[in-house]
Give the backbone structure.
Amino acid sequence: MDFEVTYTEEQQRFRTEVRAWFAANVPPSITREPASATEASENYRMRRELGRKLGAKGWLFPTGLERYGGGGLDVDHAIILEEEADRFDLSLPPFYDSGATMGAPTIAVWGSEEQKETFLRPIYRGDVRVWQLLSEPSAGSDLAGVKMRAVRDGDEYVLNGQKIFIGSANGTDWMWTLAVTDPNGERHKNLSWFMVDAALPGITVQPMELLGSGGGSGEHGHKNTVFFTDVRVPAICLVGGENNGWKVASTHLELEHGGGGHVGRNRLWEGILSYCQKHDRDGQPLIEHQDVRDILADIYIKSEIGRLFGLRNFWLTYARHPKTYEGPQASLYHKYAGLWMTGAILEAVGPAALTTDPRWGSEEGFLELQQRNGIVAVHPGGTADIQKVEMARRIGIGRTTRQAAGKIV
Ligand SMILES: Cc1cc2nc3c(=O)[nH]c(=O)nc-3n(C[C@H](O)[C@H](O)[C@H](O)COP(=O)(O)OP(=O)(O)OC[C@H]3O[C@@H](n4cnc5c(N)ncnc54)[C@H](O)[C@@H]3O)c2cc1C
């Protein structure tokens, strides 16, 4: 299989149009590292504004269902959009929005017409951003063991519980979550999936200080605990039927566990290469030391494999090809490779990789952040162990019936 994509003349014309649009609409400062809280919130504002402009063209969610305001584009045009965004160090959406990138496809599969109209259009247009609220203090890997309770009361459900490791900085408009609707029900048949307005009374968001905090615009490293106290949610917000939440979750878990793929260059590789070209050891640029070259070659190979797995999965998913093990395979590879790279970079660069001091450390402290994030990244979206379990089930190890990939339309 040839992993690289080739383009028709029409697609190349589309690329030219997209490139010109990005050049005219992306503020140059959007990817500059914010130096203060004020700059960080201004950066977030710029990203949301860009999101709305992309949404108006159907380019924020290029493969989203067209009749609800999504792009309705095929996979090749979607890859072009992602690649052109990547030239500006951006992804689509250009802000933290894991709740929408995984929540919208979930509603597209499991939602009623009314729910698709209500929820998909604002997401596709960039009018709302969404967080996903799954993990709880006693339910991370064992997601089916969540305790958050939802009790029907007339036309509403009343939600009580606690979620952890949630979202980002700068708050959210909506959040989706899994809650127990049948406390006596069989495991996997006792949960329901809700889309919740984050402004409802009874929701409290409390920031968490974590190992990965403090990097980038603060969006990704920043996590929260979210408390629900007697939160009254309209019944229309229950998507996919009562006690059917585990099946509904199979769609976003497929995307989260590597199935959604990723398009774009490996920015860590570019950063480490540039650092080794610019910094010396014993009066000689790092790049000229044989041991460093050796490590850099391995980093490049691993980065490329990760990039190609990401591209393959994006293509398989949005070209609507069947998948089995590919999602957890990519996710597992990405997590292990990232952890390995953290050690390899430390070996190549030495103690400079551990400091944010501009005299020795890297520009904008990305090497020091990598030392923390390589460890952190093994955990979100299902730990490396869980990816291994998933992959084993998909290829038929330990199960007589192979587990199928989650459904995506
Ligand atoms: C940076 C970050 C961002 C996150 N973002 C979100 C978010 O936006 N929304 C959200 O809902 N959650 C989020 N999470 C939570 C994340 O999904 C959980 O941390 C993860 O699922 C692991 O759960 P846990 O921390 O409870 O660990 P546990 O489930 O308690 O696991 C502890 C250890 O046991 C291992 N283990 C557990 N079960 C098994 C098994 N069956 N087989 C083998 N090993 C096993 C795990 O691999 C791990 O090493 C985030 C976490 C981090 C660190």
Observations:
- Residues 98, 132-135, 140-141, 165-167, 212, 223, 376, 379-383, 385-386, 389 surround flavin-adenine dinucleotide (CB under 6 Å).
- Residues 279 and 285 are 6 Å apart (CA to CA).
- The mean pLDDT is 93.
- The chain has three domains: 9-95, 130-245, 260-395.
